[in-house]
Amino acid sequence: MKCILAWAKQTKPEQSPNKIKPDKQRRQNIHMETPAFSVNAEHVNAGHVTEERIGSAASRKATPFAPKMFLQRYFYFVMSLLLATLVVSGFQRTVNANLFHPAIPRPMILWFHAAAFAAWILFFIAQSTLVRIRKVAWHRVIGWFGAGLAAVMVLLGVTTAIVMARFDTFRLHQTGADAFLSVPFYDMITFGTLVGLAILWRKRPEFHRRLIFIATCGLMDAPLGRFDLIFDNSLFYLCIDLMILLGVARDFYLERGSLVEKAQRVHKVYLYALPLLIVGQSLTLYLWRHNPAWWQEITHVIMG
Q: Fewer CB in a 10 Å sphere around the end CB: N or C, the chain?
């Protein structure tokens, strides 16, 4: 009997501890075998990538302000907004009494002249914006509209100047309107010449943009003249030249080298245009303020 029991004990299969486990241990093993761990790892990795992206974005936002890059990219756009602000600030002082609700109605051509002038300012802003957002094809197409508008503005400017000089002299009984014709005549000659050169050199952006900028600045004597201090002291041309000098200063700042080297590399448009403008402005102010005899004979014929 003892032999049988000993033989049965030896032949009974041993139970491996790995086969029979407590439920808790089994659940833990199942949990470890499921993909939950891999999902959590992905979340951790994603979080790590997100933190890297946030960090890189923060580093980009923390990039210090670069004046040279700003001037290179945004100068003409900012100047277009500045000129528009100047137009609004100047004309709001007189537009109600002289155009919207005058005691004596103004000639209808003044409305067309004002509309064309405002359209050019909007055109200048639009063109500066298109260049900034790299819509060069649109810029070129709309540019031909600007060329036609400029031609209309020259004709309207000269005609409006003559009509308003006669109106101020014979209807409002003002003096000096005939001598003042030198100002709008000079403005239109200069504006038409600069825009014409800009069209001629439209495939040379460095020339084209500066010529349009100078031409638009040259129109600012109209809003500047609405300020009594500037008009009474004939300072509007000086203010225009200072605005043009901002363009010179921008190029001067962006150039590399010593002060002498920078001065030698002033762009040809500024180098030739600015002295000629100053000479023309000086002659224009002389004709207006001093009204020499030969100019009186010319204006007498114009006034009729």
A: N
Average pLDDT over residues 125-137: 92
Neighbours of 146 (CB within 10 A): 21
Share the mean pLDDT of the chain.
Answer: 84
Distance CA 131, CA 109 (A): 33
Is residue 277 within 8 Å of residue 241, measured between CB atoms?
A: yes
In this prediction, residues 240-245 reach a mean pLDDT of 97
Q: How far apart are CA 195 and CA 275, in angstroms?
A: 18
Is a pLDDT exceeding 70 seen at residue 61? no
The closest alpha carbon to 280, from 154, 210, 177, 193, belongs to 193
Query: Distances in Å between the alpha carbon of 197 and those of 202, 204, 205, 240, 268?
Result: 8, 11, 12, 20, 13
Residues 238, 240: Cα–Cα separation, whole Å: 5
Scan for tokens 């010529």, then name that residue: 211
Rg (CA), the chain: 38
DSSP summary character for residue 17 = T
- Mean pLDDT within 232-243: 97
- The pTM assigned to this predicted structure is 0.78
The DSSP element (H or E) to which 264 belongs, if any, is: helix 259-264
> Which of 83, 61, 85, 109 lies closest to 215 in space, CA to CA?
83
Check: CB of residue 132 under 8 Å from CB of residue 169. Answer: no
Neighbours of 198 (CB within 10 A): 24
Considering Cα of 172, then 174, then 177, then 178, what sign does the dihedral take? positive
> Measuring CA to CA, which residue among 152, 131, 127, 147 is closest to residue 195?
147
Q: How far apart are CA 162 and CA 282, in angstroms?
A: 21
Task: Please give the average per-residue pLDDT across 124-130, as a whole number.
Answer: 95
What would the pLDDT profile of 17-45 be if each residue is shown by its tens digit? 444 444 545 444 444 444 443 334 444 34
The pLDDT of residue 36? 40
